[in-house]
Amino acid sequence: MDQPSGRSFMQVLCEKYSPENFPYRRGPGMGVHVPATPQGSPMKDRLNLPSVLVLNSCGITCAGDEKEIAAFCAHVSELDLSDNKLEDWHEVSKIVSNVPHLEFLNLSSNPLNLSVLERKCAGSFSGVRKLVLNNSKASWETVHTILQELPDLEELFLCLNDYNTVSCSPACCNSLKLLHITDNNLKDWTEIRKLGIMFPSLDTLVLANNSLSTIEDSEDSLARLFPNLRSISLHKSAGLHSWEDVDKLNSFPKLEEVRLLGIPLLQPYTTEERRKLVIARLPSITKLNGSVIMDGEREDSERFFIRYYMDFPQEEAPFSYLGLWVDFLPLSQPSRRDAPSSLLMRDI
Length: 348
Known about the structure:
By secondary structure, this protein is of the alpha/beta class. The protein has 12 helices and 15 strands.
């Protein structure tokens, strides 16, 4: 099989990490001695390679000599190959199979959709724990193959891949804890629920910059689909217009962190109103939009919530309003629970 044209991984590696560019070892890494070949190797006698290699935007199209990759990269644990010209999964496999301790691999913005990922080829990725495929236009078939061959995969990034739908994998991936699937075209919750089916151990789900319209599942269904979800980002979900969708987040039994900025529902409110109204509706969260909910802030938010809805017609007030109102009434004076709202304002 003819060698693909363009710059090889080894060529770029030698240029970037040559003694002229890296005269001293910096941070964790090692010098690798490469013996000269009879024909005269173009490489220097020694390269200073860190355990984290960043070779992004270098025009790489192929692997190069696999024996040399193995000699150089035995200690490498992280590899950034983003924004190159890799379009053949076999060339990627030649690189990765010779980096035995690799745990993090970034293949973003490579045209890998131009080739099919075979299971044998994907097997060379088996030790990878964090995989970034942003803007690679990787098909769901490719993703499924990866999931079958990476038993220890914990973090997966599938952003900017033009997904309109989600295709369920034939088998669950119980190892995955974090999924970034931002900046796609996912609109229906029926697609998002498939992620819960595929990744039952999911801890963090980042859905920012999609067009999600509503959260349709029942409370029981949401609890079953995402039993371990601790953090969710719905930042700039262009279709969320209802407080009912926010209330549905209470169905995730382990949820602690939520990001909700930039959704249409919250646009009419001030920054303070947004934060307090959301905190009051989500009693279990400890962090909102990246900011920790401080001591006393929850009680202030719940009092604000009650005052805010006090003058609303009963049919327009949220169901949770009554529960919060009762919680703030003095338990030693139960008769006051039936008092007019105007007499209760001093308690809140």
